[in-house]
């Protein structure tokens, strides 16, 4: 596949920094839990010897068009929350590094029929895994008013979450909400013109997170990574919003997603990791100009303690 097609599907963010963070051992076993357009995976493969191996996960069938023909590569069409099960399936006891780019591929925002963006009309879908049963329309039409308010508040950090939920439940009692157009008609009046796009993006983010159970999947994947990484193995994670970043930060600092600190006899925090970069790595001004979606990216790198 040519580079042009890669770019159409997804431009990898902080590519050099993310790969450098893995400190790749050419003979090692690596996992890219977010294959997408294959940009990060191809860079890892460039650094592996014939004895190294890369397992790449993606639950979206569209990502299969980017599969690399390479004996050192295995594509796993699955949600990364099942990382541990799949590694057991492939008889892998330990891995040397794991990369996660938690951003949504440009492809998803640009594919009208997938329902991820309010730029197009279409079905309210938002499933990363097309085999999944629950769509954004199901949530909007079937969740209670309180459940909807919680989704918007927790995952979109929207202050008017209760008003939004009330308006949605009122409208759906008249007729089912099927399309993005129907949905926008309900929520648009709640946002001031100058902040409209930003606020609507938060609503769509909240629904997408709920549809795909992203927070639960992230927590399960991090726990599995902690168990699978061998001492000295690296974790390189790109996050794009505060909720994800908080989970990853807590996990590296304390070894658990809640951030509960447990200390040993000497007062040291019990965590299986040490942070490689104490200051988060962000995209350069140049990269942000070329790829606006890199603006909110934060890279955290950690090493499993010896």
Walk me through the structure:
The chain is of the alpha/beta class and 306 residues long. The chain folds into two domains: 3-106 and 214-304, 3-Layer(aba) Sandwich (Rossmann fold); 130-211, Putative methyltransferase TM0872, insert domain (DNA polymerase, domain 1). Helices cover 41% and strands 13% of the residues. It is built from 13 helices and seven strands. The protein has helices at 3-9, 15-22, 39-46, 83-89, 106-110, 136-142, 145-156, 161-172, 180-187, 196-211, 214-228, 242-254, 285-290, and strands spanning 29-32, 53-57, 73-76, 95-101, 229-239, 273-275, 298-304. It has a seven-stranded mixed beta sheet with strand order 3-2-1-4-5-7-6, with helices on both faces. Helix 7 packs across helix 8, helix 7 crosses helix 10 and helix 11 packs parallel to helix 12. The chain is globular. Mean pLDDT is 88; it is low at 1-7 and 106-116.
């Amino acid at each position: 596949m040519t580079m042009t097609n890669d770019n159409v599907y997804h431009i990898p963010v902080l590519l050099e920094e993310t790969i450098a963070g893995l400190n790749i051992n050419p003979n090692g076993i690596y996992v890219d839990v977010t294959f997408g357009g294959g940009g990060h995976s191809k860079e890892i493969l460039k650094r592996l010897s014939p004895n190294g191996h890369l397992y790449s996960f993606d639950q979206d069938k569209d990502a299969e068009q980017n599969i690399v023909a390479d004996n050192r590569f295995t594509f796993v069409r699955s949600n990364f929350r099942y990382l541990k099960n799949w590694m057991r399936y492939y008889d892998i006891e330990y891995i040397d590094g794991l990369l996660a780019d938690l951003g949504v591929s440009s492809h998803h925002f640009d594919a009208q029929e997938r329902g991820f963006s309010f730029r197009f009309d279409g079905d309210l879908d938002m499933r990363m895994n097309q085999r999944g049963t629950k769509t954004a329309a199901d949530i909007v039409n079937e969740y209670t008013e309180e459940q909807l308010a919680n989704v918007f508040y927790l995952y979109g950090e929207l202050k008017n979450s209760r008003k939004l939920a009330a308006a949605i439940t009122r409208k759906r009692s008249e007729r089912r909400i099927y399309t993005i157009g129907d949905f926008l008609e309900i929520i648009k009046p709640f946002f001031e013109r100058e902040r409209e796009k930003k606020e609507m993006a938060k609503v769509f983010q909240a629904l997408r997170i709920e549809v795909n159970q992203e927070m639960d999947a992230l927590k399960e994947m991090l726990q599995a990574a902690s168990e699978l990484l061998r001492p000295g193995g690296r974790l390189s994670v790109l996050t794009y919003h505060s909720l994800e970043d908080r989970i990853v930060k807590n996990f590296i600092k304390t070894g658990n997603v809640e951030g509960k600190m447990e200390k040993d006899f000497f007062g040291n925090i019990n965590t299986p990791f040490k942070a490689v970069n104490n200051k988060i790595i962000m995209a350069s001004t140049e990269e942000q100009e070329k790829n606006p979606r890199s603006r909110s990216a934060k890279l955290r790198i950690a090493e499993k303690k010896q």
